[in-house]
Design brief:
This protein is of the alpha/beta class. It is built from 14 helices and 16 strands. The protein folds into two domains: 152 residues, Rossmann fold, CATH 3.40.50; 271 residues, 2-Layer Sandwich (Dihydrodipicolinate Reductase, domain 2), CATH 3.30.360. The protein starts with 6 loop residues before the first strand and ends in a 9-residue tail after the last strand.
C-alpha cells in the first residue's frame, strides 16, 4: 500500500469473538496481500493473563480455524508482528503499559508511528476506554505533525437517542471528528457500495428513482442463525437496535439520498445524514399499524437471556420520508433471526404500467423491479417485461442479473474498514449527525412499543407475523 508509515494496531478486546472471527483473519489477508504498511505491529489487549507467545498461539489457532488459503509460513510471519498486553479496560495501569509498549516500538523504529485503536469490546466499556486513551495521551498526534491516532468503534453507538448524544458529546470533547471511525460493516460490503454507482451512473435508473415511479421499497434482513452464544449481549438490545438502527437505515439512506455534489466522504456523509433526518418519527397511532415485533420460540432458553424476556428477535416496520422526492412511498423494513433462510436484500418495486398498450386488468402485474441482493450472494437483478414467445401477446417477466463479488479484487468488509481507517477515508463510516438522526427515529419506536403484542414464531419461519 502507499501508506508506508509505521502503524501500530491495538485491538482492545484482542481475544474476543470479533477479534478472533473477523479482525485477525482480515489483518492476515491484508498482510499477505501487502496492503498493510511495511512496518506494522498488532497488540492485543484483553483481560485473560497470557504471554506474548501464548497470544501468538491464540492468533495462530484462530487463523488455522479460518478458511483463508494462506500458508503456515505466512501465518507465522504475521504472528511474529503480534504481541499482547493483559489488562483491564477500567484499570489506568493497563493504558500505561500500553503506552510504554507503543512508545518503545516507535523508538525502535525511530519514527513517530501511527496508532489505530480498535474497540472490539462490549459497548458498556466505550466511555471508560475513550476516557483512558485520552488521559494517557495515547491518541495525541506527534508534535512534528507526523503520525496519526485513530479510533475505530463498533456499533451499537448508544442505546437510544439520549445515550447516543451523551456518548457523542464525550467523544467529541476528547477527540476530533477525523480521529473517530464509527463502523457500520454493511457500508463496507461490495454490493452496498455499489448502490451509489448503480443509482447515479445509470441514466436508466436515475429518472424513475422517486415517488412518481416507485411504488414501494422492501429492505429485508433475514438470518437463518439464532442468537447463538450472544444471548448476554443480544437480550439487552434486540433486533431493532442490533441491525435496524444501523445497517438497515444505512441501506435506506443509500437508496434514497440525493446525489452528492462530489464523490467525497464529506458530501456523501452529509447527504446520508440529511435523508435520515427526514424519517418521519412514529406516533401513538402509526405504531399500531406500521410496526410488528416477534420472538422465536425457545429464545428465552438461551444462555444469558432472561427467562421472561420480551426482547424481539424479529421486527417489521414501515417508514416514510418527509421529502419532496419520497413523500408517501412506503419503506418496508424487516429483520429477524431464526428465519427460514439467510437473505439480505433491497427490492425497489416500480409502479404497474397502468395505462397504454399493455394495460391489464388480469392478475398479472406489469411492473419493474430492481433487487439489490447483499447476502448470501452480492448480486443485482432487474426485472423487465417482455412478450412471451409464441402466438398472441402475453407478457412475462424476465430478469437480468449480475454478481458483484466475482472479482479477484474483492476484499472483505473488515479488510475494507481497516484499510480505509489507515488511509483516513471516512466515507464508509457514519458521522455523528447520521447516528443521531437514526436514533431519533428508532427512539420514537422504542418509546412506544411497550404495549405492542410480541408474536412468537417457530424457528425457520418465512414470515413470523401474518
Ligand atoms: C451484526 C449484528 O452487526 O451483523 C449481528 O450484530 C448480525 O447480529 C450481523 O448477525 C450480520 O452481519 P452479516 O455481515 O453476516 O450480514
Amino acid at each position: 500500500m502507499n501508506e508506508s508509515q509505521a502503524t501500530q494496531i491495538v485491538i482492545l478486546g484482542g481475544s474476543g469473538d470479533l477479534a478472533k472471527r473477523k479482525l485477525i483473519p482480515a489483518l492476515l489477508d491484508l498482510y499477505v496481500h501487502r496492503k498493510l504498511p511495511d512496518v506494522f505491529s498488532v497488540i492485543g489487549l484483553a483481560r485473560t493473563p497470557r504471554s506474548d507467545e501464548e497470544y501468538r498461539q491464540f492468533v495462530n489457532d484462530s487463523l488455522t480455524a479460518h478458511e483463508h488459503g494462506h500458508s503456515q509460513e505466512d501465518i507465522s510471519a504475521f504472528c511474529s508482528r503480534v504481541s499482547y498486553i493483559s489488562g483491564s479496560f477500567d484499570d489506568p495501569q493497563s493504558y500505561q503499559t500500553l503506552k510504554t509498549s507503543l512508545d518503545s516500538f516507535s523508538d525502535s523504529q525511530n519514527v513517530c508511528t501511527n496508532r489505530l485503536f480498535y474497540l472490539a469490546v462490549p459497548p458498556q466499556y466505550y466511555e471508560t476506554i475513550f476516557e483512558y486513551i485520552h488521559q494517557t495521551g495515547l491518541a495525541e498526534n506527534c508534535s512534528d505533525g507526523e503520525g496519526w491516532a485513530r479510533i475505530l468503534v463498533e456499533k451499537p453507538f448508544g442505546h437510544d437517542l439520549e445515550t447516543a448524544q451523551k456518548l457523542d458529546q464525550k467523544l467529541s470533547s476528547l477527540f476530533t471528528e477525523d480521529q473517530i471511525f464509527r463502523i457500520d460493516h454493511y457500508l463496507a460490503k461490495e454490493a452496498v457500495q455499489n448502490i451509489l454507482s448503480f443509482r447515479f451512473a445509470n441514466t436508466l435508473l436515475r429518472s424513475p428513482w422517486n415517488k412518481e415511479h416507485v411504488k414501494e421499497v422492501r429492505i429485508t434482513m433475514h438470518e437463518d442463525i439464532d442468537v447463538q452464544d450472544r444471548g448476554n449481549f443480544y437480550d439487552g438490545i434486540g433486533a431493532l437496535r442490533d441491525v435496524g438502527q444501523n445497517h438497515l437505515l444505512q441501506l435506506l439512506a443509500l437508496i434514497t439520498m440525493d446525489e452528492p455534489q462530489e464523490f467525497t466522504a464529506k458530501n456523501i456523509r452529509k447527504n446520508r445524514a440529511e435523508i435520515l433526518s427526514a424519517l418521519i418519527p412514529f406516533t401513538d397511532q402509526t405504531i399500531q399499524t406500521q410496526l410488528q415485533r416477534a420472538q422465536y420460540e425457545g429464545y428465552t432458553n438461551t444462555t444469558g437471556v432472561d427467562e421472561n424476556s420480551t426482547t424481539e428477535t424479529f421486527f417489521a416496520l414501515t417508514a416514510y420520508l418527509d421529502t419532496e422526492t419520497w413523500q408517501g412511498v412506503p419503506f418496508h423494513i424487516e429483520a429477524g433471526k431464526g428465519m427460514a433462510e439467510k437473505k439480505v436484500s433491497i427490492e425497489i418495486v416500480f409502479n404497474d404500467v397502468a395505462s397504454g398498450l399493455f394495460e391489464t386488468d388480469s392478475c398479472h402485474t406489469i411492473q419493474n423491479k430492481v433487487v439489490l441482493q447483499i447476502s448470501p450472494e452480492q448480486s443485482m437483478h432487474i426485472t423487465l417485461n417482455a412478450k412471451m414467445p409464441g402466438t398472441g401477446y402475453q407478457m412475462e417477466s424476465r430478469t437480468l442479473s449480475f454478481d458483484c463479488d466475482k472479482s479477484t479484487l474483492e476484499i472483505s468488509a473488515y479488510e475494507k474498514v481497516l484499510l480505509d481507517c489507515i488511509s483516513g477515508d471516512q466515507t464508509l463510516f457514519t458521522q455523528t449527525e447520521e447516528v443521531l438522526a437514526s436514533w431519533k427515529f428508532i427512539t420514537s419506536i422504542l418509546e412506544r412499543w411497550g404495549d405492542q403484542e410480541l408474536h412468537i414464531y417457530p424457528k425457520g419461519s418465512k414470515t413470523p407475523v401474518q
